[in-house]
Amino acid sequence: MSAPRRPPLALYVHVPWCVRKCPYCDFNSHGVGGGASLPEDNYLQALIGDLDADLPLAAGRELVSVFIGGGTPSLMSADFYARLLEALAARLPLARDIEITLEANPGTLERGRFAGYRRAGINRLSIGVQSFQTPQLEALGRIHSGDDALAAVAEAREAGFDNLNLDLMHGLPGQTPELALADLDRALALGPEHLSWYQLTLEPNTAFHSDPPALPREEVLWDIQDLGHERLEAAGLGRYEISAYARPGRRSRHNLNYWRFGDYLGIGAGAHGKLSQPAEQGLSIERRWKTRQPEAYLRRRRDPRGFVAGRMLVPTEELPLEFAMNALRLVEGVPMASWQAHTGRPPAELLQRLVEARKKGLLVEDAERLQASPRGLLFLNELLALIDETG
Q1: pLDDT tens for residues 253-305?
Q2: Is 312 inside any structural domain?
Q3: Which residue of 86, 159, 173, 297 is 20 to 30 Å from 203, comparing CA positions?
């Protein structure tokens, strides 16, 4: 019997610094103020050392995508990324059409920096706009203005970027459906290839969770979502994930790899990775995470323990929920055969245990696919609870 085929491999790179921590942000980000200098050289060498330590896990597999997130990666210079990508290409084979994404904040850009990023080898930008309106941006603690966002998009196009994502939030303090749609219209007028449009949520361990702002009522949130979905689809951006819309051929390959339960290395302070390894029955999955605090991460360069802060093998009984939490975010779902390939569970068993989900209209009636219905996408937690009962 041949060994099971491992899924595609991606790389996530974390840059933990930002100018100021936003009150809604629960990511591993650390405000440094506007005038602080960052330890670019030290962090670059730490990232390369981190990657070198993880190379045996990759076993020479080809990388299909790289995503550089934060924090605010656009605080780092173009030279930083040129050297990082050069080191990466020297260590792992890269797909000919590899997607390399950099997150950028419109408030941290110097004139000409996007052109330098493009020359360094970055071919996709994700710009954190969130809103174009001053009251909403101030409520979110953002350091940029709507005009800064417009200027960032213009400079990205001038630099030659033809694959651009805009991050936009809705359900903001004081936001009406009219204001939310105005934000969408401003974004659509810029012609992005991809748009991430997601609702503000109050996450634990954030300033907003401790001191919550007044958010729109639930019926207003439903109106915003319904009207916004219609507006995006009419503009030619098809919804392919709960909060992601793209023009044909411009879906995020990196995020698709996550949602299809692909593998990924994670390097940088607090970065997480997921690796599949051949086991007696199918594949075993290991999750690992790196030292979280930037200063402690940098010290790990000279620590024989390396950069890994923790690791765990995902218990077999938890694989169904792990897989479903990702796959069911996709509007088109996944082939039922991929369920067995990733969880080791027979599709017949899953179908038997999802009778209740079908009765509630949470799943599409298709024996060949595991696919949430439009109602299932709205009530995904309820659907996942039923999946969890199959463990």
Answers
A1: 999 999 999 999 999 999 999 998 876 556 789 999 999 999 999 999 888 78
A2: no
A3: 297
